[in-house]
Amino acid sequence: MPKDKRKTIVHRDRVVTIFPYAKGFKPPTIKKCRDAIENTKKEVHFDALAEFFPPIPPPSCEDDWLAMYNEPGQTFREFTEGTPWLSSRKRRYTQQKFVSKGVDIPSKYPDGVICLLPIGDFDSSNMHPKFEVLAAYTKAYIGLPVTILPSVDLEFDEKTSCAYWSGLGKGYSGNVLDEESAELQRNYTKRTKLNARFDRATGTWQLCVDTVLDKLRSILPKNALCLVALTMTDLYCDDTDLFVAGMSAGNRGVAVFSFARYDPALTFSTEFWYEMYYSKAITVKERKKLMLQRSCRLLVHEIGHLLGLDHCIWFQCCMNGSGHLAEDFSQPMSLCPVDLHKLQALCGFDILKRYSELLAFYKKHGFKEEQDWVTSRVTHITKGK
Ligand SMILES: [Zn+2]
Ligand SMILES: [Zn+2]
Question: Which of 172, 243, 259, 335: disulfide with 340, CB 3.0–4.6 Å?
Answer without folding.
Answer: 335
